[in-house]
């Protein structure tokens, strides 16, 4: 049972799972914006052009139509709030992960320094070598 819980914890802590969760949250908020745009602006415009039914005037509704800019602006504000919250959650998660890496002394893997190259035959030589093992040339001293 402990092994299963450990594997589940590793799965959750992977960056891809967090990226997917963030994508789903932002996608849901963006869906609300698109739905509001179509329901409150585009569809009523089509109705107005085609001689559809007109509703009451309230808030930011265009008189004589059902165009409701207030509902659309509300959906945009809702999206921005959700995006800001998700952004702060991601920043906090990244900071906690960096702190955890520092506490466990895990350093990001650095690429090893490139091997020295003989300036005459352009073959790799061992670090600290004084002669090239490929062409036998004297290598310039490195500091």
Key terms:
single chain, 3 helices, 143 residues, 57% helix, 2 domains
Write the layout of secondary structure elements.
Layout: H1 2-13, H2 15-49, H3 69-103
Helix pairs in contact: 2-3
What does this structure look like?
The chain has 143 residues and is mainly alpha-helical. It has three helices and no strands. The longest helix has 35 residues, at 15-49. The protein has two domains: 2-103; 111-143, no CATH class. It has helices at residues 2-13, 15-49, 69-103. Helices cover 57% and strands 0% of the residues. The model is unreliable at 54-58 (pLDDT under 50). It is elongated.
Structural class: mainly alpha
Span between termini: 56 Å
Mean pLDDT: 77
**How would a crystallographer describe the biggest sheet?**
none
Helix content: 55-70%
Number of strands: 0
Q: What does the overall shape look like?
A: elongated
Q: Could you name the ranges where pLDDT drops below 50 across 5 or more consecutive residues?
A: 54-58
Number of helices: 3
Total count of domains: 2
Cα radius of gyration in angstroms: 31 Å
What is the string of SSEs from the N terminus onward? Answer: HHH
Strand % is: under 5%
């Amino acid at each position: 049972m402990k092994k299963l819980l450990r594997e589940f914890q590793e799965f959750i802590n992977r960056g891809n799972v967090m990226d997917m969760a963030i994508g789903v949250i932002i996608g849901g908020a963006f869906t609300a914006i698109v739905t509001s745009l179509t329901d409150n602006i585009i569809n009523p415009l089509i109705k107005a052009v085609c001689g559809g039914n007109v509703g009451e005037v309230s808030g930011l509704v265009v008189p004589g139509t059902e165009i409701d800019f207030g509902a659309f602006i509300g959906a945009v504000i809702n999206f921005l709030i959700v995006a800001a919250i998700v952004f702060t959650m991601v920043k906090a998660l990244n900071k906690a992960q960096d702190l955890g890496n520092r506490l466990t002394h895990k350093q990001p893997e650095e690429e090893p320094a490139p091997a020295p190259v003989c300036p005459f035959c352009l073959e790799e030589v061992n670090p600290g070598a004084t002669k090239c093992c490929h062409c036998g040339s004297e290598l310039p001293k490195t500091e």
